[in-house]
Amino acid sequence: MPLKHVDTIISKSPEETIQAGVALALRLRSGDVVALCGDLGAGKTHFTKGVVQGLGGDAAEVCSPTFTLVHEYRGGRVPVFHFDLYRLESERELSGVGWEDYLDEDGVMLVEWAHKFESRLPVGTVFVRFEIGEGDERKLEIGV
């Protein structure tokens, strides 16, 4: 899906990717969904650390939820629900992890590999697309 109102950020390090997440967190409110799209190692989890930190949580708690499918971070001003849909193959599996229940929760959802189930994302989802550059460089495109 083409993005409208795109902001492009070039990150030169994992720390800058974290700071990009902090900056986005300042614009997020409860009920927002953020789709994180990009290859393995593109910076999605570092970005998530920044969002959690920007919302007042502990970035040190953040790790990839690949094997647990969702992590909850409730230490900040708003809960963060961090999904990783990489291993899911069907919409039935998505429903089985409580997708609809989380959409009704009073928090922010960050969804890695969200493009796999794009039709299940609500209107107004913020998309962050990650591209790997040379070394630690990452291009982030943020839009709706």
Please explain how this structure is put together.
- By secondary structure, this protein is an alpha/beta fold.
- The protein has one domain (7-143): P-loop containing nucleotide triphosphate hydrolases (Rossmann fold, 3-Layer(aba) Sandwich).
- The chain has four helices and seven strands, in the order E-H-E-H-E-E-H-H-E-E-E.
- The chain has helices spanning 14-25, 44-54, 91-96, 99-104; strands at residues 7-11, 33-37, 70-73, 80-84, 108-112, 126-132, 138-143.
- A seven-stranded mixed beta sheet has the order 1-7-6-2-5-4-3, with helices on one face.
- A hairpin with a 5-residue loop joins strand 6 and strand 7 (138-143).
- Helix 1 (14-25) crosses helix 2 (44-54).
- The longest helix has 12 residues, at 14-25.
- It starts with 6 loop residues before the first strand and ends with a strand.
- The relative contact order is 0.27.
- The model has no long low-confidence stretch (mean pLDDT 90).
Q: How would you summarize this macromolecular structure in one to three sentences?
A:
The protein is α/β, with parallel strands linked by helices.
Keywords for this structure?
144 residues; alpha/beta; Rossmann fold; seven-stranded mixed β-sheet; 7 strands; 24% helix; 26% strand
Q: How would the blueprint of this fold be written?
A:
Elements: E1 7-11, H1 14-25, E2 33-37, H2 44-54, E3 70-73, E4 80-84, H3 91-96, H4 99-104, E5 108-112, E6 126-132, E7 138-143
Parallel strand pairs: 2-5, 2-6, 4-5
Antiparallel strand pairs: 1-7, 3-4, 6-7
Helix pairs in contact: 1-2
